[in-house]
Write a structure and sequence with these properties.
- Chain B: One of its GO terms (biological process) is protein-RNA complex remodeling.
- The complex is a heterodimer of chains A (788) and B (490).
- Chain A has 788 residues and is an alpha+beta fold.
- Chain A is built from 17 helices and 34 strands.
- Chain A has a 4-stranded antiparallel sheet with strand order 7-34-33-32, with no helix packed on it. A 4-stranded antiparallel sheet of chain A has the order 8-9-10-11, with no helix packed on it.
- Chain B is globular.
- In chain B, 51% of the residues are buried.
- Classes of the chains: A alpha+beta (788), B mainly beta (490).
Chain lengths: 788, 490
């Protein structure tokens, strides 16, 4: 170790020496005299700083002295020359330890060139000596003052004052040793730049100059040792956001910036080639990691999956027709739209367009642009799927129109009443009832003012008026149906009045009067009711002659019914009529009365109350058969008068029947009777008695109660009408066919409006002209109207 | 005036200067005919009636412009010529023959004669009326008389100054016992009337010399009908009367006492009769009672009207509510022909020049029926426009094409059977003018529509050449309207 150190030291010394030698050598090469001067200066310095002993040393080291001594001791030097040389070349510190070093180095010579040392772990460690370059080392620049004793220990010169010889053969004097100098050193101040080292090349104590000390300080302070270096120079911003007027470089843009690099292309092609040949795999093939973990059990859900038939709700997408020429990217010219068509297509609303695309000629497929509507269509399709998924509807392929019965249009069913032709004004208060006479010339009306009036039908001229009810309204007026005599029956208050209006020709008037007068004798011939029976309520009333005032006005007979009759209906032959008193106070046995004109006879055919359905409302004779129809609130019953039997019960299903009518030609044209029933609960019901007890058809067209229904009396026009409290009449066409197979067809024809609603009441009664398709209505507003 | 017309025609021509058509203007009337030399004229097709009328006036050199109407192929030009050509598919290169006639001037209201009750019938005695011509009498202008039969049972004779010259006697003195629905002059001195009292009454009418008072005296009572009489027709040269009654029969009567048979006993009011008792008691005069020459009864419903053929008094026509029009041979009282329509017929008028019968129907229109047996179609034309039953018809004295109708809707309408339009029902006539009731206008309700013609129904209308259009109705008045040559004759 010490050897290595020595060698290292030596190297270092050598280096130092070299540096110094360099410095000096350069000078020396140029001016030899200056070298001497320098050394002289050094000597001067040392002499200035040191005392006489130094002078002594100086003396010793003077060139002349050394030369002399070298000559004297030249023989002895080779034996001991190496060590002093080593010491000389080493640092001055090494020089101080020279004696011990010498001992070790001498023992080293017998040892191998390595040592075994213990390292930190206690293991053996071989440490080899450093290899000396020896002979091969080239000391090209041997310094003048360098010791030339060679590779001999310096200890050989221990006996001598010099330590070797320089290149000129002069003795190199041994520098003064520490022991000699210590006393001096201690006695003097340590000057600035004192290092305590000995310059090995000069043997003088190494002193550092001011510059060197400054340099050392900078190194110690981690400063840049270079002189004149300013770490705080002002910053020059070369690249900043400031737009310079003159650019840093005005060079034109180099070509490489915009020309594709051929080099890169070459490189890319190389890679491409390699990829093609398979030398480079563009991506790492996924390594099939088949780590069959035996601990995990995988279940294959679809292992035994088999083809299944489609779900019943599966709806395959509708098949689109194959594309045609128009959809081609290069359609034949005749499919291309001209400018006009193109403009029309563009201007049309997208929804109105006949087709969604415009045939366009692109020339070639590669010129076809991307489909602009793609995203939109996909989006809409998604919306469709979300909002309106495809559903299979079980659709019947039947035109709904064909299911409807074929109703003829009203135009084809003319004539029917459509406009108001005449207004009959004169009644004060409501007109409760009206009737057109069998000849169709006159109209009889009765109203709340207690008068019965007869009008000329066409012109609306009032021909005759009689006030029959003093207080009570005239509830109903009805003409006797046959034409051989003219009799008007009117019900006002508790009485029935039979009137022959004085508007007839003498012959007919006489016939009418005779008809009515004939009964007086018959009634008189009958035994008068006994006094005991007189008081009984069930006794049929006796017909009486009217008062003189009434008789002058054409009233011929009065039937005191004792209860208010609201319905009169004549038998078609004109000899009988039936009256109904629907009042709740009326005894059931007296509600319905049949009056015989020729005998002045009143009979009560029903002794008991009709079961179910409340009090009777109205009654009509069958137009051809001896059957009496009686309606109570909920049912219509047919009684065979000759056999005195209940024939049929008709249940219209209405809550409260207001009126009904029997088809005039029913049962003569066809086998069955047809009935229309109007009810206060707004329903008009058509009954075909052959079909069912229940209504064949229910017509609910009115907003309020239906007051009256009536068939056209002649078989000529298959019309019927109803009158309602909503102030309107409705005209229907209801044809009854002769054969049994087809049912009656009912066509609503016309709503006749005109009557004002007065006190919640609209049209109170209606009647048809016996021949024409004209109809008359009695309104609660005090007018009657003729509709034609 | 002419300058204005020129500018209008210039404006019209500038509008459609691009198309022109060659027209030949002709007229059948001598006084307004263009000179022979006038050849076809090239006119713009944009011209309408007014521009054409101006053109003709200019050609005639009239100082006072006369309005003209123009007929192309027998139909009135109601559009521009261009539209007419387009509508009828006629090339503009053909020469169009356009006939022009004097335009109808809207008839103006002259006077209204107020009555106490509804007026059911009206007739006119004037220099040009039939009764005058039959009697070869002379009625000086200004001395025209108007006869009205009212619903109060009285006949009234009016002069043109709205004064009543004469009134028929009351029922007690041999007058009508009920409303009069028909009244006519037979001659300037005799009147026939009928009504709801089932009698036809002949009256003698005498006038004082000054013409301000007169007297109607009952002449004959004709019994035979069992129900009210709706209309009368007279033919003075043969002394015959036709009556239409609601008892489904037509009475054929003679105006001469000597000709007529005795009255049927059962129809003559007797003391036994209840209703005539009161009347008989107070009756102070005895009037000859006669029966019908014949009762023509084959109608099945009230007969609304019966008329004589204009040319042949032995032929009668009748219409009835039973929808039929019947032709009668009055000599033998035999039914010749029956023409059935689909509606009740309420009035009848003969248009002899066209061999047509015009009948008013309850279905609010007038049907023109060809009564000849050779005619294949029953209805030649329908005139539509009324809104209620048409109950009275009268011919235009000026024109064989003209017609006036009175309806229950409260209007009288003037028709020209050449003014037609093609409907989906075929050729349909349109009314030329509509005369409303003055009474409505006086009430300030001219525009108000009466439901069913309430209060303003027209019952009778008569068109006389010198007096004008006389109509009577439910508003208790006779209304006289006159237009100077209302319809052009042609």
């Amino acid at each position: 170790m010490s050897a290595a150190k020595v060698s290292k030291k030596r190297k270092a010394v050598t280096k130092d020496v070299e540096e110094e030698a360099g410095v000096f050598s350069g000078d020396e090469l140029n001016v030899g005299d200056i070298d001497g001067a320098l050394s002289d200066d050094a000597n001067d310095l040392s002499s200035d700083e040191e005392d006489s002993e130094v002078e002594l040393v100086d003396d010793f080291s003077s060139d002349e002295d050394e030369d002399e001594e070298e000559e004297l001791d030249s023989d002895e030097i080779p034996s001991d020359g190496e060590a002093p040389l080593k010491k000389k070349s080493g640092t001055s510190a090494a020089d101080l330890e020279v004696p011990t070093n010498d001992d070790e180095s001498s023992s080293e010579e017998e040892q191998p060139n390595f040592r075994i040392e213990k390292d930190a772990n206690g293991n053996d460690r071989y440490i080899y000596d450093e290899i000396n370059p020896d002979d091969n080392s080239d000391y090209s620049d041997v310094e003048e003052n360098a010791n030339t004793i060679g590779n001999i220990p310096l200890s050989f010169y221990d006996q001598y004052p010099h330590i070797g010889y320089d290149i000129n053969g002069k003795k190199i004097m041994r520098p003064a040793t520490g022991e000699a100098l210590d006393a001096l050193l201690d006695s003097i101040e340590i000057p600035k730049g004192f290092t305590g080292l000995t310059d090995p090349s000069t043997g003088k104590p190494l002193e550092l100059s001011q510059d060197e000390l400054e340099l050392l300080r900078k190194v110690q302070m981690n400063e840049i040792p270079e002189e004149g270096y300013n770490p705080y120079e002002p910053l020059m911003e070369w690249f900043s956001n400031k737009q310079e007027i003159m650019p840093l470089s005005a060079a034109p843009e180099p070509k490489r910036r915009f020309v594709p690099s051929k080099h890169e292309a070459k490189r890319v092609m190389k890679i491409v080639k390699a990829i093609r040949e398979g030398r480079i795999l563009p991506y790492k093939p996924p390594s099939e990691e088949k780590e069959e973990d035996l601990e995990l059990i995988n279940y294959d859900l679809w292992a035994d999956e088999a083809e299944r038939p489609d779900h019943p709700m599966h709806v395959p997408a509708p098949k689109l027709p194959p594309p045609g020429y128009e959809e081609s990217y290069h359609p034949p010219p005749e499919y291309l739209p001209d400018n006009k068509e193109r403009k029309a297509w563009q201007e049309a609303d997208p929804e109105d367009r006949e087709r969604e695309y415009l045939p366009t000629d692109f020339g070639s497929l590669r010129k076809v642009p991307g489909y602009g509507e793609f995203v939109k269509e996909k989006f809409e399709r998604c919306l469709d799927l979300y909002l309106a998924p495809r559903v299979r509807r079980s659709k019947l392929n039947i035109d709904p129109e064909s299911l409807l019965p074929k109703l003829p249009s009203p135009e084809e069913l003319k004539p029917f009443p459509s406009v108001c032709a005449t207004v009959f004004r004169g009644h004060k208060g409501r007109v409760r009832s009206l009737a057109v006479d069998p000849t169709g010339v006159w109209l009889a009306t009765g109203g709340d003012d207690g008068t019965v009036r007869v009008w000329e039908l066409l012109t609306g001229r009032q021909l005759y008026s009689v006030k029959v009810g003093e207080e009570d309204p005239v509830n109903v007026v009805r003409w006797r149906p046959s034409k051989d005599a003219v009799v008007l029956a009117a019900a006002a208050g508790d009485d029935i009045y039979l009137i022959v209006p004085p508007i007839l020709d003498p012959e007919l008037e006489q016939a009418s009067l005779d008809l009515l007068d004939a009964g007086w004798g018959y009634a008189a011939s009958k035994p008068a009711p006994k006094a005991s029976e007189e008081g009984k309520k069930t006794t049929p009333p006796q017909w009486v002659r009217p008062s003189a005032a009434l008789a002058d006005n054409g009233v011929c007979a009065v039937i005191p019914l004792r209860y208010v009759a609201k319905s009169i209906s004549w038998h078609r032959r004109g000899d009988y009529f039936v009256t109904v008193c629907p009042g709740s106070s009326t005894p059931a046995s007296m509600a319905i009365a049949i009056h015989t004109l020729s005998k002045h006879l009143t009979q009560y055919p029903f002794s008991r109350r009709i079961k179910g359905g409340g009090p009777p409302q109205t009654a009509h004779f069958h137009p051809s058969k001896p059957i009496l129809f009686v309606a109570n609130q909920r049912t219509v019953r047919a009684y065979d008068l000759s056999r005195q039997l209940l024939v049929k019960i008709i249940q219209p299903g209405a809550r409260w029947i207001s009126s009904f009518d029997i088809h005039p030609t029913s049962s003569t044209a066809s086998g069955g009777d047809n009935l229309i029933v109007g009810s206060y609960d707004r329903r008009l019901l058509w009954h075909d008695l052959e079909l069912s007890q229940r209504p064949y058809k229910t017509l609910r067209y009115h907003r309020k109660a239906i007051r009256a229904v009536k068939f056209h009396p002649s078989g000529r026009y298959p019309l019927f009408a109803d009158a309602s409290d909503d102030g309107s009449l409705q005209i229907f066409h209801g044809s009854v066919t002769g054969d049994m197979l087809s049912n009656a067809s009912i066509v609503p024809l016309k709503v006749l409006k005109g009557h004002k609603i007065t006190g919640e009441l609209g049209v109170m009664d209606l009647d048809w002209h016996p021949r024409e398709a004209w109809c008359v209505s009695a309104g609660a507003d005090g007018t009657c109207r003729l509709w034609m | 005036m002419n300058g204005v017309q020129d500018s209008t025609s210039a404006a019209a021509s500038s509008q459609s200067a691009q198309r022109q058509v060659r027209v030949q203007l002709v007229s059948k009337q001598e006084d307004i005919a263009l000179p022979e030399s006038t050849g076809p004229i090239l006119v713009p097709t944009g011209l309408r009636r007014y521009a054409l009328s101006t053109l003709v006036n200019n050609l005639l050199g009239n100082d006072k412009p006369v309005p003209f109407e123009f007929l192309i192929n027998g139909a009135f030009l109601r559009t521009s010529i261009d539209e007419y050509l387009t509508a009828n598919g006629i090339s503009a290169e053909t020469t169009l023959e356009i006939e022009y006639i004097r335009a109808l001037i809207p008839p103006l209201h002259i006077a209204s004669f107020e009555h106490d009750d509804w007026v059911g019938s009206v007739d006119v005695l004037s220099a040009t009326s039939l009764a005058t011509s039959w009697a070869s009498a002379v009625v000086s202008p200004g001395q025209e008389r108007i006869l009205s039969g009212s619903y109060d049972g009285l006949l009234r004779v009016w002069n043109m100054s709205s004064q009543i010259v004469a009134t028929s006697p009351s029922p007690a003195d041999g007058g009508h016992g009920a409303s009069i629905k028909a009244a006519k002059f037979i001659s300037p001195n005799s009147i026939v009337s009928a009504g709801l009292d089932r009698t036809v009454r002949l009256w003698k009418y005498n006038e004082s010399d000054d013409g301000f008072s007169g007297k109607i005296t009952p002449q004959i009572e004709l019994y035979g009908h069992k129900s009210g009489i709706n209309s009368l027709a007279v033919h003075a040269p043969s002394n015959r009367i036709l009556s239409a009654s609601s008892d489904h029969s037509i009475g054929f009567w003679s105006t001469k006492k000597s000709d007529a048979p005795a009255a049927p006993e059962n129809l003559v009011p007797s003391a036994a009769s209840r209703s005539s008792k009161r009347r008989k008691v107070s009756s102070s005069v005895s009037i000859p009672q006669r029966g019908p020459l014949a009762l023509l009864s084959s109608h099945t419903a009230p007969v609304s009207a019966a008329i004589f053929d204009t040319n042949d008094s032995t032929v009668g026509y009748s219409t009835s509510w039973d929808h039929s029009l019947r032709t009668w041979d009055l000599v033998t009282a035999a039914l010749v022909d029956t023409r059935s329509t689909s509606h009740s017929l309420l009035s009848l008028e003969h248009l002899p020049e066209h061999h047509l019968l015009a009948t008013g129907t309850s279905a609010r229109h007038i049907t023109l029926i060809d009564p000849r047996t050779s005619a294949t179609t029953i209805s030649a034309m329908t005139l539509r426009g009324h809104t209620n039953a048409v109950v009275s018809l009268s011919r235009d004295p000026h024109s064989s094409y003209g017609l006036i109708s009175g309806s229950h809707d409260g209007t009288c309408r003037i028709w020209d059977i050449r003014a037609t339009k093609t409907d989906n029902d075929g050729v349909v006539g349109e009314s030329v003018y509509s005369i409303t009731r003055r009474s409505l206008e006086e009430q300030g309700k001219a525009d108000a529509k009466r439901v069913g013609g309430e209060g303003v129904k027209v019952f009778s209308v008569c068109w006389d050449r010198s007096v004008g259009i006389v109509s009577a109705g439910e508003d208790k008045r006779i209304q006289i309207n006159r237009g100077e040559g209302v319809l052009s004759s042609a």
